Amino acid sequence: MRGLLIGLAAAAALALSAAPAAAGEAACIWGKLPKEKRELVRAAFLRDFDEGRRLNPYTQDELNVAFEACAPIEDAAMAAAGPALGGYELMDGSALWLERNMGFDKARLDRAWRDGPGKDPSIPSRVFANGDPAPGPLGEAIESMARALGVPPNGKAGNYVGGYVIGRLLVEYFEPRF
Asked: Residue 134: pLDDT band by 50, 70, 90 thresholds?
């Protein structure tokens, strides 16, 4: 579990350090990026969690176009758009692997979220209270989601459950900020 938390904290830190950009909803931004590059990221997640979370095939121009298309915002809120997009991509890639390999469709993941970490509406703020992900609340959220799905929090499936959780937390925490 400790290794998973370190890896997910690194993924969150990478998302937090993403270049600021104009925004809208993370799903909108993701949808405006070139489809062939989005599919590269999704395929990478299916092969290997770490490969998927590290891959960033987009040019700055492609990101700028996607951000601009999804309702540009003021500079003060731009820093939240990158982590929200990174979280959406992490959540999407993890959900794809969980669906293909574990049979967990979106409805099942949403139910497990509501029955697990989503029961605590303060969880996104508790995880990101100091900027970087707090290992205690993050670990609790991952374990809660894993229990709700009936998956051990360690191992390959646990890594993807953890990826889904940190991705969803990033989206839920940062989307309201832009």
From this structure: confident
Which residues is 132 bridged to in the sheet? 130
Instruction: Report the pLDDT averaged over residues 116-137.
Output: 91
Regarding pTM above 0.90, the answer is no
CB–CB of 92/167 below 8 Å? yes
**Average pLDDT of span 153-164:** 94
Cα 134 to chain centroid, rounded: 16
What letter does residue 20 receive in the DSSP assignment?
P
Query: How many CB atoms are closer than 10 A to CB 126?
Result: 16
Report CA dihedral (122, 127, 130, 135) to the nearest 10 degrees.
150
**Residues forming beta bridges with residue 130, ordered by sequence position:** 132
**CA distances for 47 relative to 57, 64, 65, 103, 168, angstroms:** 16, 28, 29, 17, 21
